[in-house]
Amino acid sequence: MDGSSLLFLLPLLLASFSPATSLRTDTQLPSTQAEKLIRDLNLFPKLSINIVDRNISSVGRPKIVEKPFKFPNFVDSDGVSVEELGHHAGYYQIQHSHDAQMFYFFFESRNNEHDPVVIWLTGGPGCSSEIALFYENGPFKIGENLTLVWNEYGWDKASNLLYVDQPTGTGFSYSSDKRDICHDEQCVSDDLYDFLQAFFAEHPELVKNDFYITGESYAGHYIPAVAARVHQGNKAKEGIHINLKGFAIGNGLTDPAIQYKAYADYALEMGIIKESQYKRINLIVPVCEAAIKLCGTDGTISCMAAYLVCNGIFSSIISIAGNINYYDIRKECIGSLCYDFSDMETLLNKKSVREALGVGNIEFVSCSTSVYQALLMDWMRNLEAGIPELLEDGIKLLVYAGEYDLICNWLGNWRWVHAMEWKGKEQFNASSAVPFEVSGSEAGILKSYGPLSFLKVHDAGHMVPMDQPGAALEMLKRWTEGSLASDPGSLVSSI
Predict the structure, then answer these.
(1) What are the residues whose beta carbons fall under 8 Å from the beta carbon of 263, sequence distance 6 or more?
(2) Is the pLDDT confidence value at 479 over 80?
(3) Where exactly are the structural domains of the chain?
(4) Could you tell me which residues come within 8 angstroms of residue 169 by beta carbon, excluding any fewer than 6 positions away?
(5) Helix (H, G, I), strand (E, B) or coil at 455
(6) Contact, 420 vs 459, CB < 8 A?
(7) What are residue 332's DSSP bridge partners?
């Protein structure tokens, strides 16, 4: 059965289930799903993507490469100069693009200039990394009246920290050419590799620092692809050698075949659905698996079929669960509002902030519906396939997941990590899980062997650094220092 056959059969497959099966037969259009994703976060971007007029005036189109800056509403920075603060914002033109301009924030470590360089990628696909900057692990928290205060658990306390608006068209990143919109991980990883080359050319003092790639959610696709691209560039001696030491995926989507099958199992285990509902939902799993197999790593129309049929599993669970917050099943969504990240949009649209950042008239697209739809053929591709080579070349991988997330749940992540074929598979699978202790308390369960670690984080949902900021910072410190898998009793931290 090819992809076109699956698309033809999809309505018949869904219609074959009676209403009593509790299976969703109203498969939502991707555009509707993308819109819902954004509204759930209380975000209202003016544009669906940042594609600008090629002839935009020099006043409106930023020309900066990078500039030090200070947020005008940062209340904790009195008496500190812009240079001492070590905060930077800028654009790099992506070398091999038509006209892509990628925006980023760079925060020097509050601890030591020799700390590793850590890049954070937010998923969506199509959501700006500023969500993480202001609500998860950035240097600031948004306080009253849109003031910014230090985040005591910001990851800049252990690293030189980069947030990039990507793929092109997301956040403040833009292009004048629609050909720069990415449709697959080859494009995403090539653009980010070019970005990193430009960044390290601008910051030669950081070239020898260890480098780590991190992120969450749909970045479970981006991160392995970018890690493989950097490793490839290093081996081929392309440009600047990037000192890649590891990559970390938080509550990510990486191996869809395994992870979609785990949805019903997780929902049953957590009491979201009943046994009878579980059995009915699982009827669609074999069709989903067949579609994903056809999609593989480079399919086209078959990947769209897989997206449509497999998301029926998730939407069926949600239709039963009602207004449950699928990012954190301990919580409920009020109407369409699961989280309120609207302060970020308001803050970044303030004239004084935009002037400080040097973004000119470029709109801030918090989450791009167009980027989401452009990556539909990429959604069901298996990004686990390139990871074994990285592990076997000594590059570390940390997969971590909050235990109360449904959408990229820990169980699906646990299963793909254990199913992955690599030289250390047998030893990793046979290793014991141990407590991950922070400040004298168990913050999670850790399993490690060689370069591979898996951490299930207690009392956290989809956004671990937001829900458990202290544990997340300690996780980053220990992982980058190489002490994550050591005796937890000797590593209890006084955060």
Answers:
(1) 281, 313, 314, 317, 406, 409, 412
(2) yes
(3) 1-481
(4) 49, 50, 51, 126, 175, 180, 181, 365, 368, 370, 371
(5) strand
(6) no
(7) 324
Handedness of CA 397, 402, 403, 407 (dihedral sign): negative
Confidence tier at 43 by pLDDT (50, 70, 90): confident
Phi–psi pair at 95, nearest 5 degrees = -55, -45
Packing angle of the helix pair 285-295, 256-269 (nearest 10 deg): 160
CA dihedral 186, 187, 193, 195 (to 10 degrees): -170
Helix or strand (DSSP H, E) at 163: strand 160-164
pLDDT at residue 297, as a whole number: 63
Residues 169, 370 contacting (CB under 8 angstroms): yes
Pair 477, 495: CB distance under 8 Å: no
Q: Which residues are catalytic?
A: 217, 405, 462
The values of phi and psi at residue 14, to 5°, are: -70, -40
Task: Write the CB contacts of 414 (distance below 8 Å, at least 6 apart in sequence).
Answer: 401, 454, 456
Strand, helix or coil for residue 120: strand
Express each pLDDT in 84-103 by its tens digit.
Answer: 789 999 999 999 999 999 99
Phi, psi of 121, deg, nearest 5: -120, 120
Is 204 or 299 the better-scoring residue by pLDDT? Answer: 204
CATH level 3 topology of 1-481: Rossmann fold (3.40.50)
DSSP 305-319: HHHHHHHHHHHHHHH
The radius of gyration of the chain from alpha carbons, rounded to an integer in Å, stands at 22
